[in-house]
Specification:
single chain, two-stranded antiparallel sheet, 82% helix
């Protein structure tokens, strides 16, 4: 039931990117950056779907749904929030850190022995690649991907913005790993309780 919901919801969010971008393009409404982000999100989500299916990652329907959510949060930020809400972008980086950690956990769990250090540093590496991309766009196309601007006033320098983004993503990865560890310990306790209950039930009979 849940897989069906995530599958349908993920597809709606996915095709909505293309529809949104087309509306921006045909009717010339909104910012050009929002139109570009819509089509880029569509392409990236398509790529993630192919990658998840190719790697045969467990729970990939739910993961793809979360990936679409993440890109929609980015698009909504570009359309409405980045330039008016100071900490929207920082909160989004925490969410992205958790999402990347979940995807990497599922990948390592399927193909390799899961190590918390490997997940954390993999997330950090992916975040660093994204920040390099932002620097490239900022340096060569003069688009404000670095720094925080509220109503065209710089309130955070490019360097501080980059470091805060990396810290936010790292916090997200750490929160995910803590949650996974707590969930793992809970399952161990639950298993012990069930074993004891089964033992006392047999003993009583």
């Amino acid at each position: 039931m849940h897989d069906k919901f995530y599958d349908v919801a993920g597809k709606i969010l996915f095709y909505a990117f293309f529809l949104q971008g087309t509306i921006f393009l045909v009717f010339e409404v909104g910012k050009k950056s929002s139109m570009v982000w819509s089509f880029v999100s569509f392409i990236f989500c398509w790529g993630f779907k192919i990658a998840l299916e190719k790697k045969d990652i467990y729970d990939r329907t739910f993961l793809w749904f979360l990936i679409n959510i993440g890109f929609w949060l980015g698009l909504l930020g570009e359309m409405f929030f980045y330039y008016h809400l100071t900490y929207y972008d920082k909160s989004l980086h925490i969410f992205v850190g958790m999402l990347l950690a979940e995807v990497l956990f599922q990948y390592y769990n399927k193909h390799l022995k899961v190590k918390k250090e490997a997940i954390f540093f993999s997330v950090l590496g992916l975040l660093a690649i994204w920040e390099i991309y932002e620097y490239f766009i900022f340096a060569y196309f003069a688009y404000p991907t670095m720094g925080v601007f509220i109503d065209r006033i710089e309130i955070m320098s490019p360097l501080a913005d980059t470091m805060t983004d990396l810290i936010g993503g790292s916090i997200g990865a750490i929160l995910f790993l803590i949650f996974r560890e707590e969930k793992k310990q809970f399952k161990k306790v639950e298993k012990k309780v069930k074993t004891k209950l089964a033992y006392y039930k047999i003993k009583k009979v």
